[in-house]
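Q: Got a minute? One more chain.
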Amino acid sequence: MADQQNRFFHRKKIMTIFFICALVLIGLFMRLLYLMVWRADYYEEAATRLHERERSIKAARGRILDRNGVVLADNKTVCTVSVIHNQITEPEKVIAMLVKELGISETEARKRVEKYSSMERVKSNVDKSIGDRIREYDLAGVKVDEDYKRYYPYGDLASKVLGFTGGDNQGIIGLEVIYEETLQGETGMILTVTDAKGIEVDTAGERRVEPVPGWDLRISIDRNIQEYATQLAEQACATKEADSVYIIAMDPRNGEILAMVNYPEFDLNDPYALPELTEWKEDGSIAVVDPSTLTAEQKQEKLNAMWRNGCINDTYEPGSTFKLMTVSTAYDLGATHAEDTYYCGGSLQVENWEIKCANTSGHGMQTLTEALMNSCNVAMMQIVQKVGMARFYEFYKAFGLLDQTGIDLPGESRGQFHNTSETSDWNEVALATASFGQRFTVTPMQMITMVSAIVDDGKLKKPYVVKNVLNADGTIKSTTDPEVLRQVISEDTSAYMREAMEQCRRLGKILAAHCEDNRLLRGGYIHDGAYAKTHSHRGICSESEWGQIARDVRLAEETGCAYHVCHVSTKESVSIIREAKRRGVNVTCETGPHYLTFTEDDLQEDGRFKMNPPLRSREDRDALIEGLLDGTIDMIVTDHAPHSREEKARGLEKSAMGVVGLETSFAACYTSFVKPGVLPLGKLMDLMHDAPMRRFGCGTELAIGQPADLTVFNLSESYVVEPEQFLSMGRATPFAGVTLTGVCKMTMIDGKIVWKEETL
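A: Always. Here it is, folded:
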């Protein structure tokens, strides 16, 4: 009985297992039937895909043309060389060919050939002639596909505007990156069929999806204007010994950029090649830096600096060019008129600050137009006081100086202005200095849009570079329309400003310059000589003066401009000016009595010996005297700077720059040069009176019938200089305690006695 039960149980178990297996088989059969019948097309396509090899075809990148159709950025046919491991039948021949034709090492070639992959790229951007030679080898497993590489026919022209592309032909900087979607086009494809081993099936042929070229850009820049501006920038950089020069030419009528120069430019066809690098050493000398010694981070930093478009990225104090906004704002508001007059005595007291004009002796009485011609700081401060802080700031904003201009170039910056919510920052002194473009920053792009608005009917326009996007056949796909952002000043104001600027040009005013290269100052405040080194003071090198004079003399020679150098102090300056005069350059210069008398050997730890330029070496002083005698130096001036007692009581390092000279100038020169017979008295009078009058058309002649503007001296009487007896508000003079001959007895202005000695 038990045996029978066991047999029944086992039979039941077997039947269950059989039944389950039957169900599984039926399920597999049905699944197979479904795949083979209903999903056959899908899996056939998938199998095909499994055995297809895909190679991309780069699209021809859109060209960049200048406004006249001159090609500035083009495409050059190149090749990409690849190897397919499974198809190579003669690996050693392939390796030898790659080494020979591509110039790679045998190790690198072998690594590529022996690497098991569907396709291994060996080298891109191969010259087409080399690619053609490689094809002639007819080696199995070697593929040569034609491609495109960006090419710039004019090398470095407008490099920081155009930009360049990387190895993947995508834009890196400039127009190339900001118009990437427009220029790049659509990549094509080559599809080939392979067998199970990855070998291409010759009979299957290939399928191609053709690439779509990118659209061309026609830009507003004129190649001829750009080249000319680049030449000017190069000359300016050489003559001024500057690190960089920016030039922008803009059509004020529509905002089109005709030229944008960032000198030095870089070679667009070799954008990763760094120029010779220099750096300042601790001893003040310049050392050459080998680019190969730089870290990757340092090299990238240098490259970024080289690629930087300073016209839109960099900021600076606009200086006197900003006076155009000050005057146009005031004129538009009715705060000034063409017939208004402004007196400049050389400085203006604003709150507790005495702010000087560039011409410290003053411009006298002048009209509004004359104030612009003279670039008078005092007049600008008087004008802006009538405008007021609130209205000045509103016009500053209206001219777009707080915002980016919106130009179609990447990375645009904006300047920095005072924090108008803080009275400690935005006050009357800040307003006064802002009137002549100091203590705030703008970009060159912001400035040119401002000036364009002033001269073109008062309308602020958005600048742009790309005029048109072009189809493949050269027809216009889209156009950039000029955009007026706002009316800032009236058309009448704009017309007046345009006429005033043209009048400045027509009158041919003399350019007078205090020559000082701020880059070379490095915090100095006395001459960079023996005294500075001995007493641990920071010195001002001579080149900070003569370097700028050399630059300006060349520009004066090229342009015919009348040029005057203020207070010359170095032997190099004298030599440069002497040679310029021999060549017929229209240049004159001046120096002060203290530079003809004292040297760095006379320095004391006292603010009365701190001036700009500083007292130089004996050799410099002797060269000044020689220049005075041979006619190189045309005149002697006071360089009068009446600082307060507090400003000059802080020693050499911290005292304000400048000393008084008005009350000692004649006596000092008479004592040093006329009395010992070095100069005749008539020559000294010419140097201090007649020569300045002739050069600048000011003052009156010392003659019968002329207004009696004169000073009377007793040339036989001597005195010890006592600053406390000065009539000037300033007392700081290096002549304190010095005995001079020639006592002032009386001063007359227009025939009237304005001062005389009490004993007279």
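A: The two ends are 165 Å apart (CA to CA).
Q: Perfect, thanks.
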